[in-house]
Amino acid sequence: MSGARRGVSAVDNSSFATTTPKGKALWLGVDAAALLALLALTALAFFPVYGTGWLFVTVLGFGAVGIGLAVLSTLRRFGVAVTAALALLAWFLFGGLLAMPSSTVAAVVPTPRTLFGLLVGPVTAWRDMLTLDPPIGETFNLLTVPGLIGLVAGLTGMLVSLRSRLPMLAWIPPAVGYLIGVLVGSQVAFRPVVVGVGFFLVVLIWTTYRRFLVRGSLSSATGRFRPLRALLAAATLAVAGLLAATLVPLIAGAAQRDTIRAAIEPPIDLQQYSSPLQAYRANITEHREDTLMTVVGAQKDEILRVATLDRYDGLSYDVSSLDDSAVDATTFTRVGQWIADDTDGTPVDATVTLKDYRSAWTPTIGRTTSIEFHGSRRIALGENFFYNRSSGTGIDTAVLQGGDSYSLQAVIPERPDDAKIAAAHAGTYSLPASSNVPEIVLSRAQAIAGDEATAGSAALKLEAALREGYFSHGQADEAESLPGHSERRLITLFESQNLVGDHEQYAVAMALMARELGMPARVIYGYRVGGTQTISGAQVGAWTEVLLDDLGWVTFDPTPPEDRILPKDEEHKPPEQQPFVENPPPPPLRPEVPPPDDQVPIATGDAPEDQNQIDWARVGAVALLTGIPLLTIVLPIVLIVGLKARRRSRRRNDPVVANRIAGAWSELVDRARDVGRSPSVSATRSEQAEAFKEDFRNLRDASDPISLAKEADWLVFAPGEPSEGRAKDYWAATSPVKRGMRRSVNWLRWVVSHLSTKSFRRIR
Predict the structure, then answer these.
(1) Model confidence at 46: pLDDT above 50
(2) What pLDDT, on the 0 to 100 scale, is given for residue 730?
(3) pTM of the predicted protein model
(4) Percentage of residues in the chain with pLDDT exceeding 90?
(5) DSSP character for 632?
(6) Apex CA 663: angle with CA 657 and CA 666, to 5°?
(7) Is the pLDDT of residue 9 over 60?
């Protein structure tokens, strides 16, 4: 009863309670219209993020529900607890229709997925909405964010108007909602000046009108129409509008703005994923005839893009991320229902069904504008899909596997003709810096196309020159062609008498040559769609993309046709025959000269036997005094040192070259354990390297164990067998790390560590 009395008191003391029935109806109509107008402007603040018209249905629908609940609460004099319970009930009752219509039955009946989304949406949808790349559309329960703002703003705004003594402050709740929309919205605002001025004018007119009515009710004025007051109000609005139109652009600056969304760190780091191009030759040796996937809707000769590679480090061409010098090129974010892309081209609807394919890299076509996963794993795949709009690369951390399926909407840009390409200059774009590019690649680029007038003509010249080479996958019935695209492989490609390789080498070579000539270039890895819907390993390929001014990213194919094979007579040329030269006969041997008579050797007699007998007591005492230390001290030391030397020798000379590299890293881990630092055996090499840097402070001045760990991972797990020279170089590279360990600990501990047996113990 006390709660009800407080409700009655609150209502009775409000200006609305003292208004006539006709005045109450007008009051409700004006305030409801003003609140809905402000909520519509609030929805415009969210519009660049969601990009769907259903956003206005969500915000205005929940706003109307909140307004209705406020009116009901006022008329029935409900307390705070009852009003909050009604709002919670309305949230689940109308949430499916307004915020998650695609998850309901006939857009009305909620499903368990609907109820779960509405339950967790007010907590988790904020995070997901901020990490998805706009426009996100109606993705799962993300519309619950503006819906919740609409419900709360409509309810509290109308309650302030109807049940408080200051109804002219009812604009504050929608203003807070508008501010939230600005903070969590996109960096590019939707007509910020128009929306801001409109919001200001609605608030000014509404509060002025409400203040006039409140003052009239308090002073018992008649509220007659006064022309002078109307003119003054119109003049005030005109001046306010002019000031707003003038000052808002100065205060807001450009449409580009800083928001919470822009401050959030990209949620994915690709360092844990190896370069997909390293698996190129495995498609030929292991999956040449296997059906990897089927693609329905793609045209013949279209490229099914697995990944776009943009950084070369001398070992591989990688897909980079979180590079501060090339943010657009390396930022991967989650995407919503649509992917914004204004590229001109032919629209395509395709469906990809995976067969013998397992990878996190998601094959796409052209410029993807929408992706929708199907099947029992659709939710997990959809929530873990990340996309880079700049490169067109998609990756799913849930890992795609056989049986997964998804639909793509994409735009296929048309390739310009050679005349337009030849006239184009290089575009401007920031890519991650390349390193360890062979000098011969750079010199060949200058020799082939260094004198061309435009970047487009230079790219065409590079493409034509590389296509003069020969094609080979290095199989048993083909010319010799080593796999990979490392620094050594590219040197071999250009130093050989004939260029021999496949897409992997030619595409990488052209990309590096183009970058040397000042053109932004990168490598596409994927599959060429054939005449059928099936994709096999034999259709694997790699292409070069070059950015040209006004033409965008243009695809080049520098790989020779597969029927251009090296002639048999050039594969193995026999060495030239040398003229026969008969060796001269050896010189005659000189006869032996007998020694003089006075130098004839005389045989010596037997030495006299030692008549002294052995003192066995003394021998026993000496043996006892020396044997015990030998057995208890010297022998264990020799045994430990010998076992460590034997273990080191086995690791360094293992028949499998990859095991030698792994053994070199194991030597570092064992050395750390013997010193008293025990890196976790379940940790990765990179995690163990991080532990090294924390435990041995002087490593920063000696060597970087993190780079050694990454090199070991690449050499051990990369396709193919590393060379013996590379294994020797890796063993030599571990020496500075050991020196850094030695300088990081006390000299006595370092000496004693050579006798430690900790590295022989099994960690449990």
Answers:
(1) yes
(2) 84
(3) 0.57
(4) 42
(5) I
(6) 160
(7) no
Nearest alpha carbon to residue 79 among 163, 164, 4, 16: 4
Q: Residue type at 406?
A: Y
Only one residue has tokens 């951390």, namely 397
Give dist(CA 658, CA 264) in Å, integer: 40
Number of neighbours of residue 372 by Cβ within 10 angstroms: 14
- The three-class DSSP label of residue 385 is strand
- What pairs with residue 370 in β-bridges? 409
The two structure tokens encoding residue 482? 């080593």
Beta-carbon neighbour count of residue 332 at 10 Å?
25
Q: Which amino acid is at 723?
A: S
Quote the CA–CA distance of 450 and 516 in Å, as a whole number: 10
Q: Are 485 and 317 in contact (CB under 8 A)?
A: yes
Are the C-beta atoms of 509 and 556 separated by less than 8 Å?
no
C-alpha–C-alpha distance, residues 683 and 692, integer Å: 12
Return the closest-CA partner of residue 401 out of 387, 381, 383, 384.
381
52-91 pLDDT per residue, tens? 889 999 999 999 999 999 999 999 999 999 999 999 999 9
The span from the CA of 73 to the CA of 8, in Å, is: 11
- The amino acid at 153: A
- List strands edge to edge, sheet with 385-388: 132-133, 333-335, 385-388, 393-400, 359-362
Decide: helix, strand or coil at residue 46: helix
Alpha-carbon span 49 to 130, nearest angstrom: 9
**Calpha distance 737→197 (Å, rounded):** 64
Minimal CA–CA distance to 361: which of 444, 276, 425, 285?
276
606, amino acid identity: D
The whole-angstrom separation of Cα 305 and Cα 363 is: 5
Query: What phi, psi does 111 have (nearest 5°)?
Result: -105, 170
Q: What are the distances in angstroms from CA 111 to CA 104, 586, 666? A: 6, 103, 54
